Structure formats: C-alpha cells, structure tokens
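Continuing the batch. This is chain 6 of the set; chains 1 through 5 are on the previous pages. Same settings as before, nothing changed between runs. Recording input and output for traceability.
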Amino acid sequence: MKVLMVCLGNICRSPLAQGILEKKAADNKLSIEVDSAATSNYHIGDQADSRSISKAAEYEIDITNQRGRQIEKNDFQEFDRIFAMDVSNYNNILSLTNEKEEINKVELILNLTYPNDNMSVPDPYYGGEDGFENVYRLLDAACDVIIDQLKNE
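Output for chain 6:
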C-alpha cells in the first residue's frame, strides 16, 4: 500500500500526516509507503515548517528529512490512496486527471473520522502553536482509521 498526503505547500499539514502515518505503520508492523506533496510550487525542496517539525518531535516523530515537492500526474499511478487536507487541495488534485480510477483514489482525509462532512484540516501556517496541536490531533485520529482499515484488509 502506498499513501500520498497532500496540502497546499507541503510544509505544515501533509508532512505531519506523513510522519504520523509512518510511525503508526511501524508501530503496528504494517508495510506501507507514505509520501507527501503540495498542490503549489511554493516550497519545492524546502524542509517542513519548524513548527511542524517541533510538533512532530513532541510525539517522537522525526520529519526533518522530508522536503517539499509538488504533486505530479504520475502520482496517480504511483499511489493507491491520495489524501487531501482540504477541499481546495482536493479540487486541485482532481484537476490533474479525468480518469475515473484515478479520481477514486483521492479523498479528504477528515472524511475518515467525520464521514461525508467534507471537513478541512485547518492550515496552521498563520496561526499560533495551538493550531499545530489541533492539526496534529485531527491527523492522528484520521491516521488511526487508515491503520485500522489496513489491519482489516
């Protein structure tokens, strides 16, 4: 199983989601590959935001080696599931394809914990530290659902 986490800049939310899911997979001895990407090209090659790195470290997750990259058309072939952090990024991802099979791989990550509510993971970039904790908790719960789904497959 290969999973891609996607947000706007690939420096706050999607790196956290990648790190959380990688740790949960390792803790559960599940073999999955996780990556993250951006819909924009603002931070290609950049390290994750220092606040995301710090928040991850509080939970014994190291995301310091992650670097920003932009989602590409071939990611639809590369990954089994693609999780968007919010509705805007969801729509931007879908704009890259009109193939039904590829479209079906894309979902809003919070629909895992709040089915059919189409909720967005708030972008903590302009917020304070509390925003990063909130994002961590939302993504942690969603990643628990992914792990449960994988265990039951």
